[in-house]
Amino acid sequence: MPVTVQKQEETGVPAHAAAALRCPHLGAQYNPFAGPHVENPHPFFEKLRKEEPVTFSPMLNMWLVSRFEDITTILKDPARFSNKDMLGSGTHLTEEAKAILAKGHDTRHVLLGMDPPDHTRLRRLMNRGFTAQRINGMAPFITKMANELVDKFVSDSRADLVEQLAYPLPAYVILGIMGVPSEDVWKIKRWSADWQQLTFEHIPAEKQVEMANGVIEFQQYCVRLIEERRKNPREDLTSYLVAVEDDGEALNMDELVMAIGASMLSAGHESTTALMANTWKLALEHGLWEQLRANRELVPKFCEEASRFDSVQHSMLRTAREDVMVGGVKIPAGSRLMLLYAAGSRDESLCPHANKLDIHREKVPQHLTYGRGTHFCLGAPLARLQFQITTNVLLDRLPELKLVPHQDYGTWQSIVLRQMKHLKVEWTHKV
To answer: How far apart are CA 408 and CA 413, in angstroms?
Structure first.
């Protein structure tokens, strides 16, 4: 149903509360941080799509939107649905943590939390640097890194593909693009986790100060990197961003720190780790490994179908700028909306038998994993390239791969991302 402007009713009750009271209450059951909605949210999402496609979550203080058409309509309408509150979605920060973060750089310049026209300007500049030529030029490096990581466990007959491959590889790749020393990878992974968790998870008060200090250390690292590239530019994306101008105006320090630190070094690898691990798990669970090995043309197609079937980028958020109707439900101005990508990508309106993982679909539909509209994921081509190269390396070198039975994948979920801590596999090693 299209999103239409709706005038607020004169009820004497605050609009947000009144609308929530009128709304059915499946949303009250949703918990994205623990329980069955982390392990396998799809039965609940199917119920939402059929019975309450737009419903209120008291726990999150957000409206859940689960149908494909409603989600895409919102994503394509930044004039009425803002991204500006995107980065205030997780932790309720303590005063001490707020004071520490206030010493850092202005997070209003993070691409993910910006609206046009400011977003348009910054995205245009980043697009110019994040070219297809630059991305495709990373293919030899990705192949080399994937083989070196597999070398470390190929003779062991057992491995954890998250810890030993999907976790380190995307970080090394984004550091290579940015021109950051590879020996700094683990520091950046730790700082990135601090930033992401404070932004999108519920972090206990006693852990917030340490994480906030980690965010400031990360920003200071980015400042030193920026200053070094100003003196000694190289052929890397950091040097490009430092030098680029838009109508004679260069990026200021806040914009540079957010573009390099938050948008690239932080966001540039976490979702790719989740994508690779989850897609390999689906291939092994559904007995598709041998089919992929026999027909490598299926690898990119399977990446898209697996992303549609079980999106690790399970949601994104928007804020209503004005009173609107979404899916027949009145949403007051100022309300937060949680767009359930993982639910929308299994909508039957998107493709037949949407609840089936089908590697042989004639055409995989354009799922929601990478978003839509102005905020379509900048790193989608790089994520796809890493998946395809690394999957082919595994198919070449570990053809008889199997899941270790009865394992704990350590699945966890933030507001926006669903990820596994482990993917243990085994194979018969042939000398």
So the answer is: 15
Q: Which two tokens stand for residue 143?
A: 């192949």
Question: Tens digits of per-residue pLDDT, 108-148?
Answer: 878 888 888 888 888 888 888 888 888 999 999 999 999 99
Residue 350 Cα to chain centre, angstroms: 21
Instruction: Dump the DSSP string for 75-140.
Output: HT-TTTEE-TTGGGSS----HHHHHHHTTS--GGG-GGG--TTHHHHHHHHHHHHS-HHHHHTTHH
The CATH number of whichever domain residue 144 belongs to comes to 1.10.630.10
- How many domains does the chain fold into? 1
Distance CA 362, CA 292 (A): 16
Please state the pTM of the whole predicted model: 0.89
CA distance linking residue 225 with residue 239, whole number of Å:
9
Query: What is residue 251's predicted lDDT score, i.e. its pLDDT?
Result: 86
Q: What letters, b where the CB count within 10 A reaches 16 and e where it falls short, cover 236-257? A: bbbbbbbebeeeeeebeebbbb
Sign of the CA dihedral with 291 first, then 293, 296, and 301 last: positive
Q: Are 81 and 337 in contact (CB under 8 A)?
A: yes
Question: Is the pLDDT score of 178 beyond 60?
Answer: yes
Domain annotation covers residue 367: yes
CA-based torsion, 62, 68, 73, 76: positive or negative: positive
What is the number of other CB atoms lying within 10 angstroms of the CB of residue 395? Answer: 18
Residue 431 lies in a domain: no
Q: Is residue 296 part of a domain?
A: yes
Residue 336, domain member (yes or no): yes
Domain limits for position 121: 4-426
